[in-house]
Amino acid sequence: MRKVTDFKRNPTRPPAPGGETAPAESRTEEVGDARLVEQSRSGDNRAFASLVARYERSLIRVLVRLVHDEELARDLAQETFWKVYNRLDRFDTSRRFGPWLFRIGVNLTLDSLRRNEPPPAMSINIAVGDGWKAFDLPDADPRVQVELAQEVQFILEKIPIAYRMILVLRDLEGFSSAEVANIVGRREATIRWRLAKARDQFREHWERRQNSTQREAGHEND
Question: For domain 121-222, which architecture applies?
Fold first, then answer.
């Protein structure tokens, strides 16, 4: 895969995710995405570095949840930013930049999954009653966090990638249903249906898993 290098070291290419980036001046810190895109199109490397800085972490976080491989996720993010940089002239600045970026990243990831079939991703969202919420640990012990992440990973392994992807984008990353539809290239009605089905599947597997764990604990105490 062609690598994206730092603008400071090679001004003809965008900065690599996770690598060094040119410090953004104060005048660009609060600039909107559309303006940064326009500046990037005009050859302002610092403007594109600012876009990378804004979206790098969230993009990698989503990709890690989909492929469950941080190194692969970083490679995919790097390829995503490279493709985005070379397609800036196609971006409609009247629309939001984030969903467009994530659509490219998700498509690259799905292609990678089809080729390599890596293990499923994990998340730390849980079903609570009839709703969903991000898990807020009362115990700061990192061992508890690891155990919870492993437990949720076990559940999500049972959810197909097409549904898990919707769950990650909608419930974890906070994209609207319309934005998720744009990212994955499906109708909004399809997104809502898949999201509901994904939540139901997760809830069923979660409750079954918890009941099994409680029964095992009860047998141990007998």
Answer: Orthogonal Bundle (1.10)
